[in-house]
Amino acid sequence: MVLAPMAGITNPPFRVLCREQGGGLFVCEMITTRALVERNPKTMRMIRFDESERPRSIQLYGVDPEIVGRAVKMIVEEDLADHIDLNFGCPVPKVTRRGGGSALPYKRNLLRRILRAAVSNAGPLPVTIKMRKGIDDDHLTYLDAGRIAVEEGVAAVALHARTARQHYGGVADWESIARLKDAVQEIPVLGNGDIWSADDAVRMVRRTGCDGVVVGRGCLGRPWLFRDLENAFNGSSERVRPTLGEVADVMERHAEGLTGCFDAEKSAISDFRKHVGWYLKGFTVGSEVRRELATADSLDGLRAGLAKLDRDQPWPPNTDTPRGKSGERTKVLLPDGWLDDAWDFDVPEDAESDVSGG
C-alpha cells in the first residue's frame, strides 16, 4: 500500500496521519532534482521527515540524467531517505512541456539513461518508478517503459492507468495494469487509479494480478483509508466509519501539524483550507459553518468553527466517490518536436525545473 506523492498534500503532517492508520509506503511531495542538488531552501524543507517516518520515501522529478544521478547520490551520501521513486507520471503542463513527467517515457533512450544514472548511484537504496500509460492513446509507452525499468535494475513499477491527456478524468483502464503485470514478471507491479475505497483496491488486485496499490485522491480527507486497506488485505470486513466529531479531531490535528511546516500560522491555516471540503464530504454541515471553516486564518478560528459541528453525526453513506482533481485535457503540452523521434536522448533546453512540488 503506497500513498501517492501529491503536490501540496503529502507533507509530513498528512503522511503521519495516514501512517498511523496502517502499514505502507508514504511518499513525500515531488522533489525536482535540480532544486535538490542546488539546495533550494524550500526544497530542503520539503524533504524533512517526522521522527516516526520509516522508511522515508522521496519522489524525484528530473529530465537530465546527470542531474538525476547527482541528486540520488546526494540522498544516499547524506542519508536523506530510505527509498527513491522517480516521477514519470505527472501530467501538468509546466512539467510535460519541459519533457518531464508523463512525457518523458516516450523518449525510450533518455528514460534508460535516467534510470541507469539513478540506479547506479543509489547504492543500497531501492529505486522505483511511477508512470502513466503514455501521452495519449496514440502514444502509449508503459509496456516499453516497464521492460526498460527491469533491464536497468528498478525495484518496482507503479502504473497510473490513465494517459497524460486524460489527466484525472474518465475511468482508469485497469486492464492496462494487467497487461503490464503480464509483460513485467521480474519485479512488482503496483496499480493506481480510481481507488476510492478498500474494496476498490481488492477488486483491482483480483482483476489485474498487481502486487500492490498506490492511492492518491482517494485518501483526500480520509487518512483512515489506510486502515481500511490493511483490514481488507488481511481479510477483514471491518471499515472505519468515524463520526463527525472524530473527523473534526483529525482536522484539528492536521491543521496543527501544518503549523510546523510553514513559517507562519496564517500560511498553515490557509494551506489547510483546501482539505476542509474533503474532510466534510457527505456530512450535513450548514453553509455558514462551512464558510467559517474554509475562511479561517488562525488555529483558534478553525477550532471555533469545528466546535460548531454536530459531533454525534454518523459517517454518511455513499461517500466512496471521486474527490480532488478531475477532467481531461484537450492536448498535452510538449517540447517542440518531442514526438518526432521516440529514440533520441537529447535533454530539452531548460528541462530542469528549480521548483519542487509539481
From TrEMBL:
Region (Disordered): 308-331
Statement: the UniProt record of this protein carries the keyword Aminoacyl-tRNA synthetase: no
Enzyme Commission (EC) number: 1.3.1.-
Gene3D superfamilies the record matches: Aldolase class I, Putative flavin oxidoreducatase, domain 2
Pfam families referenced in this protein's UniProt entry, alphabetically: Dus (PF01207)
tRNA-binding recorded as keyword: yes
Catalysis performed (reactions): a 5,6-dihydrouridine in tRNA + NADP(+) = a uridine in tRNA + NADPH + H(+); a 5,6-dihydrouridine in tRNA + NAD(+) = a uridine in tRNA + NADH + H(+)
GO molecular function, one term: flavin adenine dinucleotide binding
Alphabetical list of InterPro entries matching this protein: Aldolase_TIM, DUS-like_FMN-bd, DUS_fam, DusB-like, tRNA-dHydroUridine_Synthase_C, tRNA_hU_synthase_CS
CDD domains: DUS_like_FMN
Residues given in the record as FMN binding sites: P5, M6, A7, Q59, K130, H160, G216, R217
Domain annotation DUS-like FMN-binding: ranges: 3-298
Keywords: Flavoprotein, FMN, NADP, Nucleotide-binding, Oxidoreductase, RNA-binding, tRNA processing, tRNA-binding
Cofactor: FMN
Catalytic site: C90 (proton donor)
Biased composition (Basic and acidic residues): 322-331
Role description: Catalyzes the synthesis of 5,6-dihydrouridine (D), a modified base found in the D-loop of most tRNAs, via the reduction of the C5-C6 double bond in target uridines.
Stated family: Belongs to the dus family.
Protein name: tRNA-dihydrouridine synthase
UniProt source species: Nonomuraea maritima
